[in-house]
Amino acid sequence: MQSKSTPLSKPVVTYPALVGKLLAQRREQIGLKQGETAVALGMSQSAYSRLESGESVLNLSQLRNICAELGTSPAQVLHDADQYESLLRRQGVDVIAEKSVNPAAIAIGLGLLAALFLSGK
């Protein structure tokens, strides 16, 4: 019996997850806990967690307020996100606007994104 192989999905990361990862990295760099940041922003820790994970999409007001709390600017965060997007695309990862693809492909893409952050590129 010949086994049929299924093609692997191309790794995928959503742009909101990429921005959220950058915000989480910045928050950790300045020594803030997720719950502390959420309280300062007037939201629950779980709501803030969904923003950092990309499960919820940030609106412009939220991005501005979070950046102010983290001592950075929306322009800097979006600039960094665009740079990471370019790096990910060169590594064969699709960066998409929102979740609508295979969850396994997203998991692989997020793993590659985490590896990029850990490598310090």
UniProtKB/TrEMBL annotation:
Q: Which Pfam families match?
A: HTH_31 (PF13560)
Q: Where is the signal peptide, in residue numbers?
A: none
- Which CDD domains does the UniProt entry name for this protein? HTH_XRE
Pinpoint the HTH cro/C1-type domain residues.
23-77
What InterPro entries does the record point to? Cro/C1-type_HTH (IPR001387), Lambda_DNA-bd_dom_sf (IPR010982)
Residues annotated as transmembrane: none
**Gene3D superfamilies the record matches:** lambda repressor-like DNA-binding domains
Molecular function terms, GO-annotated = DNA binding
Q: Give the highest taxon in the source lineage.
A: Bacteria
Which SUPFAM superfamilies does the annotation name?
lambda repressor-like DNA-binding domains
Tell me what this protein is called.
Helix-turn-helix domain-containing protein
Please name the taxonomic classification of the source: Bacteria, Pseudomonadati, Pseudomonadota, Betaproteobacteria, Burkholderiales
